[in-house]
Amino acid sequence: MTQVRTVDGRIAGRRGQETRARLLECLAELLAARSYRDVTVIDVARDAGTSPATFYQYFPDIEAAILELAADVVKEAAELKELASERSWAGRAGTVSATELVNGLMDFWQEHDSILRVVDLAAAEGDKRFTKHRMRVLDAVHKALSSAITELQKTGKVEADVPANATAGALVTMLAASAAHPKTFESWSVKDKDLRGALIRLVSWGVTGKKPTP
User: Fold this and answer.
1) What stretch of H or E contains 201?
2) CB within 8 Å of 141: residues ≥ 6 apart
3) Which residue from 7, 17, 46, 154 has the least number of CB within 10 angstroms?
4) Lowest-pLDDT choice from 4-8, 71-75, 193-197
5) pLDDT band at 2 (very low <50, low <70, confident <90, very high)
6) CA 144 to chain centre
7) DSSP notation for 12-60
8) Position with higher pLDDT, 83 vs 130
C-alpha cells in the first residue's frame, strides 16, 4: 500500500491504511447513490463500520475525502490523452479519431459520473481545489486537439485564421458538458447512440473544418 498519513501527520499503519481505504470506498458508494449534499461523515463512518472520530483521523471533512477520490479519477484520466494524441485527422481516419475520442470520453465520464458530478458542482461554485482537478481531466485532450488543428494548419488543410486553442477548448467543453448531463438529453428523447453520433460529427468538423468521411 502507498504510505499515507493521518490528519495530525502520523504515518498510518497497515490497519489504518485499510480503514482509510474502506472509508473512501464507502464514500464513493454513497456518492453514487445520493446527492453529494446529503452525504455526511456519520453516514460514511457507519457504512464503513467505524466512527466519525476515526473518519476525522484521516480527513478533515467530506470535501477532503472527495478530493482523494477525485485525484484517483485524474490519474485514470491520463488515458484520455491517448484518444487524441498523435492521431490522423485526414479523410476517414479523422472520422475514426473523432469516434474513438467521443466514445472514450463519454465512457470515462459515465464510469466516474458520481465523482465528476461533485467535481463539476464544486468547481462551478468556485472551489479552486476542484477546479484544478477538473482542468487536469480535460487538459490532456484539449492540448492534443489544439495540436492536431495546428498541424493541419501547417499543411494547409485547415485555414490559418482558425483559433486552434479556442476551437479545441470549445470542443472539449462541449464533450464534457454533454457527458455530464445525460438526463437533459433523455428529457429531449435523445438516445445515447444519436448523441454520440452528433458529437462525432461536430468534433470531426471542428478539427478538420470538413464534413466527416463516412
Assistant:
1) helix 192-208
2) 80, 81, 83, 84, 101, 105, 172, 175
3) 154
4) 4-8
5) low
6) 16
7) P-HHHHHHHHHHHHHHHHHHHHS-GGG--HHHHHHHTTS-HHHHHHH-S
8) 130
Q: Which residue has the cell 447513490?
A: 33
Prediction pTM value:
0.85
Q: What's the CA dihedral at 46, 51, 53, 56 to 10 degrees?
A: -40
Q: Which three cell numbers stand for residue 63?
A: 470535501
Q: How confident is the model at residue 171 (pLDDT cuts 50, 70, 90)?
A: very high
Cell numbers standing for residue 174: 462541449
- The arithmetic mean of pLDDT across residues 98-102, rounded, is 95
